[in-house]
Design brief:
Length: 88
């Protein structure tokens, strides 16, 4: 199967990426989790609810930003391919 067929049949998920070898990514994620736990331990129920809504908004924004980044990166890659394919 070629790459386009793999993509069509859902065997390739462009939003997934392998972070296992990236120690910096894992460390940053651990810091985020650790700090969130410490922060929530000091919060009232009302503050926890507000923080939860804030975190949901940040995740929604990140999803949109990642989608835009994917689209722009895909377009850039396509333009590079087109330029390579054009005979001069």
């Amino acid at each position: 199967m070629n790459i386009l067929e793999e993509f069509w049949y859902g065997n390739i998920e462009p939003t997934e990426y392998d972070t296992l070898p990236c120690a910096e990514y894992k460390e940053a994620l651990q810091r985020i989790s650790r700090n969130e736990e410490k922060l929530q331990a000091t919060m009232t129920d009302a503050q926890k609810e507000l923080f939860s809504r804030y975190a949901d908004s940040v995740r929604e924004f990140q999803d949109m930003a990642e989608c835009l980044l994917f689209q722009n990166s895909f377009r850039l890659g396509a333009r590079m391919i087109l330029e390579v394919m054009v005979e001069r």
